[in-house]
User: What shape does this take?
Amino acid sequence: MLKNIRLERPLVVLDLETTGKKVQTDRIVEISLLKLLPDGTNQIKTRRLNPGIPIPADATAIHGITDADVANENSFRQIARSLVAYLEGCDFCGYNIWNFDLRMLVNEFKRAEVPFSVEGRHIIDPCRIFHRREPRDLTAALKFYCRMEHEGAHGAEADVLAALLVLDSQVERYEDLPRTIPELHDAMEYPDIVDPDGKFVRREDGVIVFNFSDHSGKTVDDVARADPGFLDWMLKKKDFSDEAKAVAREALARQRAQQAVPMPVE
Assistant: This one.
């Protein structure tokens, strides 16, 4: 399968489908491993896993795996020891593996209490090669879309003109992009931020949710109920804007008001 690379020891190309992108709290729902051996032989193994937590609808929309699909599958803990043995002595490869897949895998092994380390292994990530050889900065965009060199790059005026040329060329190139500024704004799919730093965003139903930390995606009222200490911590920190602190303060006030309401007497 490899025409230009020589292997000195087994190489495992891996990819994970998960319940989300938070390696500390999300779980694997599918794992695929392509094991290439120095003698030219290879084998691929793919299996689904029961994550033990609900699979969010937005995750299912990406990989198509539902709770019902994995209801009768093994958990990661059940396969962890056989998996670590299968990966013994192997190097790793995968697209964006450095930023996500390996970190998720390490955390899953940690939760399963099965020793696993990438120390001493070679990690190959085609995504890093792509980004280094094909930059995604303004200079690269101007060259790609407009076939122009970016003279005076990082000078404010030159960057302003380059950004406008790139935008106009993108609209010309992609026929499905809108032609008006309001419609282009909508196409950006920006989150509806509540505070200047974007720590909180407002969902389509108007509910405010966290956009940072392990609470990302949770409603501010849910966090006020389950982890009020986190909101108290925010109020004491200088790093958060007045607007973000106001959201935290109001959520705590609502929660404490609810706790103060006496239970009805039957």
